[in-house]
Design brief:
By secondary structure, the protein is an all-alpha fold. Helix content is 61%, strand content 0%. It folds into two domains: 189 residues, no CATH class; 111 residues, no CATH class. It contains 13 helices and no strands.
Length: 315
């Protein structure tokens, strides 16, 4: 969304050394625990949504994530300020640019490698959930710091705190919305990927069994592995010459591709995990052509073992 407007040099700013730089945050300055403090009633829902996303993380892990988020925000804020200047300079209709912590963190998604963090298997949704808890904790804790100041500084600081809390209450909605969206996308992707692999394994299982059965039957007939492989392949081709095997290779023209990415996903595509159904559901014709061979796809460990055995037959 914004990344194409940022110069390539921005990547150089996102290095592990810079991210490891010390930046204190609310969970380091206080004894608040991310999963246990009582949130302000105005941000209670956002706080609980963030905790739902982080339910598998311990307080210790979330505090470590908060350290990373605090450091990453410094980089993101610099990028956002630079982007804001560019946007205002190049647009005649844009009069202002919204600066928020959620937006600053979002700018790093294309540049920051989460594998550089010490906590394993971190998702971007979890980082935004951590940011949400950090903002909620700031809202909860900020009023207690007013008493640390003597008059007349106390009154000035009180006004600053009230202004900061009001801003955080606006920003926290943005942060938790990004957390939920990114976490949902990752969760669904993992779920659908596993489902697709299981379905493919079930479909190919009869073929694997048939190949192995024929191999064992011919094993003592004096043929070489290569010869047996050729015989089995010819037998299967002859027996299935009235059936067609789908090869998932797709070509699009530019205009159709531009249209395709904006089309609605119907239940047909979602349930079957076949994106070509989106084209058919939206009245786009899909042309097909005959291929000279019908290879086996390798999507699971079982697929690999089957294709390995077939290759051994032909060696």
């Amino acid at each position: 969304m914004y990344q194409d407007k940022i110069k390539q040099e921005a990547k150089e700013a996102v290095t592990l050394e810079k991210v490891q730089k010390k930046h204190s945050n609310i969970f380091e300055r206080t004894d608040l625990l991310p999963m246990n403090f009582e949130p302000d009633e105005n941000v209670c829902d956002a706080t609980h949504s963030a905790r739902d996303i982080l339910i598998k993380r311990s307080d210790k892990e979330i505090i470590e994530l908060s350290k990373a988020v605090a450091s990453m925000l410094r980089i993101g804020e610099n990028l956002l300020q630079s982007l804001s200047i560019k946007l205002l300079d190049t647009s005649h209709t844009r009069k202002s640019v919204t600066l928020s912590e959620g937006r600053s963190l979002y700018l790093l998604r294309d540049y920051f490698d989460l594998n550089s963090l010490q906590i394993k298997s971190v998702q971007w949704g979890e980082l935004f959930a951590t940011l949400t808890l950090m903002q909620s904790a700031e809202i909860f804790h900020a009023p207690s710091e007013i008493d640390n100041y003597e008059e007349p500084l106390r009154e000035n600081f009180k006004q600053t705190v009230q202004s900061t809390i009001a801003q955080l209450k606006e920003e926290i909605i943005d942060s938790v919305a990004r957390a939920e969206c990114l976490f949902d996308v990752k969760t669904k992707s993992n779920s659908y990927g596993s489902l697709g692999g299981d379905k493919k394994a079930k479909r190919i299982e009869p073929l694997k069994i048939e190949v192995i059965k024929r191999y064992l039957k011919m094993k003592n007939e004096g043929y070489s592995n290569r010869r047996m492989g050729m015989i089995i392949e010819a037998q299967l081709d002859k027996e299935n010459n009235q059936a067609y095997h789908h090869l998932g290779i797709y070509c699009y023209n530019v205009e159709i591709l531009k249209r395709f990415i904006s089309l609605k996903q119907y239940q047909n595509e979602i349930e079957n995990r076949l994106e070509q159904l989106r084209a058919l559901d939206n009245k786009i014709n899909v042309n097909v052509a005959l291929a000279k061979s019908s290879p086996i796809g390798v999507d699971t460990k079982e697929d690999f073992m089957a294709i390995k055995k077939i290759m051994e037959y032909k060696s």
